[in-house]
């Protein structure tokens, strides 16, 4: 879940912060792309994943139907912080490629205000050897699109959260 609020209000400015609103359910056969989720997408060619309790898989064996479901899926078991969905992505799968997610805010940020950004992070059960020690956030007045390198974005995060501040216990 993502939350962005300023000190004078309690309304979350992030649209669809728990990834629950969707155009369609993730389908292992057709793809489990984040683009199925309303107000979220990937700004580059990589494909962050969308996990939802309504996910299905026609070609899977009965014991593998859960590939993109919640709470159990291909990468492990994780109960969402709220609701019944979440996004999954590699934060530097290889040095030349990173998966990113970008979402929309329901209003423009005011430069004269202080804001609090909160989000929950959980390491997938099946990829613990690929853990990172920090995660960043970047704010822009336009949606980002990879132009020069289809796999990396030419931006530097506005903020960086070190591992000791990440709480993976949801």
Strand adjacency order, main sheet:
1-8
Radius of gyration over C-alpha positions, nearest whole angstrom: 16 Å
Number of strands: 10
**SSE order, one letter for each helix or strand:** EEEEEEEEEE
Question: How many strands, what sense, and barrel or not for the largest sheet?
Answer: 2 strands, antiparallel
Q: Structural class, from helix and strand content? A: mainly beta
| Low-confidence runs of at least 5 consecutive residues | 164-170
Into how many domains do the coordinates divide? Answer: 1
- Average pLDDT rating: 80
Provide structural commentary:
- With 170 residues, the protein is mainly β.
- The chain has one domain.
- It contains no helices and 10 strands.
- Strands 1-8 form a two-stranded antiparallel ribbon.
- Strand 4 (72-73) and strand 5 (76-77) form a beta hairpin.
- Residues 164-170 have low confidence and may be disordered.
Topology:
Blueprint: E1 2-6, E2 40-41, E3 49-52, E4 72-73, E5 76-77, E6 85-88, E7 102-103, E8 115-119, E9 134-137, E10 159-162
Antiparallel strand pairs: 1-8, 2-7, 3-6, 4-5, 9-10
In short:
The protein is mostly beta strands and 170 residues long. Helices cover 0% and strands 20% of the residues. The strands form 5 sheets. It has a two-stranded antiparallel sheet with strand order 1-8. Strands 2-7 form a two-stranded antiparallel ribbon. A two-stranded antiparallel ribbon has the order 3-6.
Keywords:
170 residues; mainly beta; two-stranded antiparallel ribbon; two-stranded antiparallel sheet; 0% helix; 20% strand
């Amino acid at each position: 879940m993502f939350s962005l609020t300023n000190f004078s209000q309690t309304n979350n400015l992030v649209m669809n912060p728990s990834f629950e609103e969707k155009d369609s359910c993730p389908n292992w056969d057709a793809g489990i792309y984040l683009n199925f989720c309303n107000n979220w997408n990937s700004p580059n060619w990589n494909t962050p994943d969308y996990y939802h309790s309504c996910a299905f898989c026609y070609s899977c064996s009965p014991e593998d139907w859960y590939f993109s479901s919640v709470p159990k899926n291909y990468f492990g078991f994780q109960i969402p912080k709220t609701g019944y969905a979440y996004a999954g992505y590699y934060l530097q799968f290889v040095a030349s490629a990173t998966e990113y997610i970008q979402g929309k805010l329901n209003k423009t940020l005011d430069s004269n205000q202080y804001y609090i950004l909160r989000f929950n992070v959980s390491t997938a059960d099946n990829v613990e050897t690929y853990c990172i020690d920090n995660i960043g956030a970047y704010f822009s007045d336009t949606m980002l699109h990879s132009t020069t390198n289809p796999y990396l974005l030419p931006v530097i995060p506005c903020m960086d959260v070190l591992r000791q501040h990440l709480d993976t216990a949801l």
